[in-house]
Amino acid sequence: MMSLLPSLLFLLLMTMAAADPLRPGFYSETCPPAEFIVRDVMRKAMIREPRSVASVMRFQFHDCFVNGCDASLLLDDTPNMLGEKLALSNINSLRSFEVVDEVKEALEKACPGIVSCADIIIMAARDAVALTGGPDWVVRLGRKDSLTASQEDSNNIMPSPRANASSLIDLFSQFNLSVKDLVALSGSHSIGEARCFSIMFRLYNQSGSGKPDPAIEPGFREKLDKLCPLCGDENVTGDLDATPRLFDNQYFRDLVAGRGFLNSDQTLFTFPQTREYVKLFSNDQNEFFNAFVEGMLKMGDLQSGQPGEVRTNCRVVNSRAVDVLLES
After folding, report:
1. Which of 39, 51, 58, 62 is flagged as catalytic?
2. Fold observed for domain 33-156
3. Can you name one GO molecular function term for this protein (predicted)?
4. Boundaries of CATH 1.10.420.10 in the chain?
């Protein structure tokens, strides 16, 4: 993961204030049932496959950190554009894009051309948390969808599962997100699963030592060794915490006990600057919930200020937008 270019960071932060203001109830007149429709589709997706809502929730982080919350993440590759779905942190990792397709299809039937894909990501992330027992909150809406995407920008910005707390603090600070925000937002791993691929180095060659990460609790390491044996199938998935279908503070309790699945999770307890927040959230679920909501709202405010549209299909830009680009 490379540092953001100063000019890109400056543009992103400046346009947070300069872009059209986001506000609650943005669709109250143009598409009153919008938020109900999103939650209804998310609820059905969770019944069909419980893991799917956790997968959709992660879209907000992977979208907003790369040139703002503009649904660039959802664009498929074209002959002239390498999108973000196959970026290093996303390929074979992000999934359940079809759930967003289902949300968009339902919204287009009810209110054609009104609700942006970027706002769908924000609403769906909130609903994923609420539907699995976590907090519910009022989201600010009114985003536009990007006209392009950048695999290169995603590769340069998004962190690896191997990231340590120090590098994560530096990354989040570039978006005006605090250490507390970092730890709280990492609590998104309260639900869902991750692949063995992401932890093989922790189990067998931490920091090139040829040994496992000493921070892993021995009993938990034995469990992970069985789940993810050397030379085994690295696409096998494991739970990110002990209650992977329930959004709660068990994730932080697991970190305190040395039972974090990813290196980028466990490092939050081993690193002094983040440890106190891990301990706080492990002891006080309401404190975690409040901090998580604050972090999600702050992350959701990131905007690029670039021209946008409301896509009719979240995977492709509208044909009119393509024509405009070709003429310019």
Report:
1. 62
2. Peroxidase; domain 1 (1.10.520)
3. metal ion binding
4. 159-301
